[in-house]
Amino acid sequence: MKLRNLIKIIGLASFFLAAPVGADIKLVAKVDQTAAGFPSHFSYKNLQEPVIGPSGHVAFAGLAFDGRAYTKAAWAGLPGDLEAIIKENDTIAGFPGNVFFSDVSSSFLISRSGAVAFSATLKGAITRNTALVYRNGVTQGILKATDQAPGFPPGTVVGEVTPLAISDAGVVLGGMTTAGAALWFWDFEKIERISTTIGDCNYFSLAVYVPGSVGINQTGNVVFNATLYSGDKKKCFSGGVFKWSNGKTELLVADGDPVPGMPDAVFGVSLTESPPKINDQDEIIFTAKLIQIISSRSTNNSIWIKNGLNEPRLLLLGGEGLKEKSDNLIFPAIFLDSNFANFGYSMLPVIANGLDVLLAGKPREIQPYDDPKGTGATQLTTIAAKNDQPPGFDPSWYYNIFSNRAINNAEQYVFTGYSANALERRNVFAMWRGTGTERPRLIAQDGMKCSINNVEYILRDIDLFPTKAVTLSTAGGQSSWFSDTGEIVFRASLNSSSNVAILLITDDSKEQRIFSLAEQLFPEQFSPSNVDNQLLEGFVYRYYPATKTYIGIKNGEVFVLGDAFGSSPQRIDTIDNTLQFLESLTGS
């Protein structure tokens, strides 16, 4: 069947090319818009640091303005159904009446069901940072300065408290007491101290103020790394990766444990730059220094994934070559923000022969090296490399700087960075996404046109949380800007720098499926297949040079253009109807 016949079957309509949108962008909140949870004369101002949870719940902070005064506040909920979860000068459930909310002081952590944990400064009798959790319509205080420290002897007092990770099983809190650092677990009803002893040894060097320094999964299992100490240095001279579950702590990987397949090397895991993470399959990712037994010197850096009692599996070894360019060796010292999702799928930033590189993939089933200085090629796929031509840009452009990265439990990734033009000496900030190890596709860039609520804007100053470049994941109970449903939350300006908005890019799997099916079913019109997505005037489209035709998508509708279809875009139908029809032709 020719596509011309498909157009006749579904219905043809001419359409004037007028700034259609690439990805479907939705408005979450915008300055001067009525602030959710406030009287109608209050509007949003100074919107800050949006994040999104695994199921699509968002949270952000900002100001509400009534024309005379500003009120600090935080908002959360599903887009289109936001609530003001706390306002400046509100009292806090669970805290005395002389303690009031002042301001948000940390990033938001969001569970799968939409519970939100964050750190806040207070007003009144107590002003220091404390941990708050919004759940089931109530923002509750968990633990605050001057409280008796749970799990400590009487008279031990809490200092500042910070939420470190969240899941629907509970929240991990970190803080200081008059007796030292501590970790606690709150199951939304009661709080207990995470044990700080293994036998006669106590933990040391716990990172209790840094979200991401511990991980938690849906069953409430918690992982972290630390060193150990006690009066008997023969027993307690090291540390490692720890797991806390059902009130008990165990040492999973210890300093000095043998490295699988490397008889002359042991692990050094207690003081690595990147803390361990855990996913819902109880897989744990950890960074390790490999140490030669004879010299006791660190010889290499590596990343491993461990599941239960099984031996760790190698994800990445310093000094490996890239799969595509085995002579481009991975610099062994750059493993600062390893992260992963379900079943060990990972995205890692590394440096190879001086180039910034983004890798994605899964760990090896069999460890191929018998020496810490392996010389083979990594099994991971290069997603993007500095100086390569970025998808969606002309050949005169190249990747210049990579910034934020995120992965989700659907094995999808997103990353941002600057593309530079070699001829015009200018940079453009842009965003790409992909699935698994496939080639990324351009989805947004500064200066593109977009249509939001049927109003056309120029997208400017795209800004993602956090400002520090890290790899984020929906596994482990941390902050992210990429949900498991493929939604991306970010802040940007619409037309002018003062018109700041929090926006949501929706999942584009249906659009990509339409492109792929059209190429499969109608190669006489759409070849070669798998060409890059392009953005022009906001239009997301593919151009097929062999047949000089286009497929484009705007606001949920599909269009074709080119020699076989004429010089004006021809409307096919909605995305859903077009996809249903194409799939009926394949029997899928």
In short:
Helix content is 6%, strand content 47%. The strands form nine sheets. Strands 1-44-43-42-41-40 form a six-stranded antiparallel β-sheet. Helix 2 packs across helix 3.
Stretches where pLDDT is under 50 for at least 5 consecutive residues are 1-22
Give the spatial strand order of the biggest sheet. Answer: 1-44-43-42-41-40
Q: How many β strands by DSSP?
A: 44
Kindly state the percentage of residues in helix.
under 10%
Spatial separation of the terminal alpha carbons: 17 Å
Characterise this structure.
The longest helix is centred in the last third of the chain and has 13 residues, at 509-521. This protein has a domain at 3-21 and 517-586. The model is unreliable at 1-22 (pLDDT under 50). A six-stranded antiparallel sheet has the order 1-44-43-42-41-40. Strands 16, 17, 18, 19, 20 and 21 form a six-stranded antiparallel sheet that branches. The chain is mainly beta. The chain contains three helices and 44 strands.
Features:
single chain; 6-stranded antiparallel sheet; 3 helices; disordered N terminus; 588 residues; mainly beta
